[in-house]
Amino acid sequence: AALGAAYVLGSEDDSLSVAYLNKSSYEALIVADKKGFFNELDFEVTKHLVTGSGQDAVNALIAGSADIAATGEGPAINALNKYGDEIVVLCSYDISTGAHVWVAQKSLIGNGIDVDGKEPQEIAEDLKGSNYKVGVIEKSSTEAMFKRWCDNFGVTYNTTAGSDLQLEYLDGKTLTSAFGTKAIDILVGSQPYPATVMESAGGVKIGSSEDIEVYSTCVLVTTKAMYENKTEQMKAFVAAIKKSTDFMNANRTEAIGICASSIGWSEAAQAASFAGSTPKVAFNDTVVDIMYSVSEGKKFDATVTREMISASCPLKEYIDELYA
What does the alpha-carbon distance between residue 189 and residue 198 come to, in Å, rounded to a whole number? Predict the structure, then answer.
């Protein structure tokens, strides 16, 4: 049976269930919800909030407990690699730099890792031979980005001892607590995880995806079966997300307040998160390039080709019309 088909057969109503996270990178959905843009649609939108990373949202989609998943490019590529053209990408809704941040224990700064006035390559040199324990969420976009950073600067990593860095796979709940108890030396994550430990445990930023000038994107994905069943609702949902990104661009201060309040962190932290972010509904060459570079990084590019990624979105003309 087609992916998601069993769920679709029992789902004759026209509501949409959307899996996403109450954290940075999901602001377009948070704002759409809080500003009532979902309520304006002529069908019900059910929020399926998950914790952890976008991989958890994609897992909810695959399990049939959501019609749409919001996620970073990493889990979207994982799904395309595993399920091929059974996965549909509706759109991208944000492109950002520096979305993924690495934070070290304060005790290591000046005592193993020097950051003052140092270039990323110099900081990376301090990590070589260190055997520091690095906490990360498995299969997250951050994991793929951190590995690219390490590869770029010649730092080795593994889940076992013997490499420069030892990866410890944690979830959204244990990532920050493990840093707080010093069970890990370095936390790598997307916001608000880094900001949380910088504020609560005195962590110090030692690097980010910005160091390697790699962009990240956030996308809405569904399955082919669900898309065919609920095409019109999904198009209307994408239009509501466009309305949200338009609002965020025109009313940045209000959007910062809405998101900081929802996520539960400071407006300063939210503003910093927004600084490198470009909210916009799109599916263009830039989005395809970002996704394909992750496919290459994961060594999935024989399967998940640039052409496959481009063909995964059936709404390119519709998105163009939204901006016409």
Answer: 12
pLDDT of residue 12: 56
Structure tokens at 316: 């390119």
115-126: per-residue pLDDT in tens? 999 999 999 999
- CB burial of residue 189 (10 Å; 0-12, 13-18, 19+): buried
Q: Which amino acid is at 146?
A: F
Q: 87: which 2 tokens?
A: 């996965």
Give me 161's structure tokens.
């001892």
Coil, strand or helix: which one is 72? Answer: strand
Would strands 277-282 and 87-96 be described as parallel, antiparallel, or unpaired?
Answer: antiparallel
CA distances from 58 to 21, 26, 67 (A): 11, 14, 10
| 3-state class (DSSP) for residue 98 | coil
Which pLDDT tens digit goes with each residue over 214-260? Answer: 899 999 999 999 999 999 999 999 999 999 999 999 999 999 999 99
Over residues 62-86, the mean pLDDT reads 97
- Residues 156, 172 contacting (CB under 8 angstroms): no
Q: Are 195 and 98 in contact (CB under 8 A)?
A: no
* Rounded distance between C-alpha atoms, residue 197 and residue 163, angstroms: 25
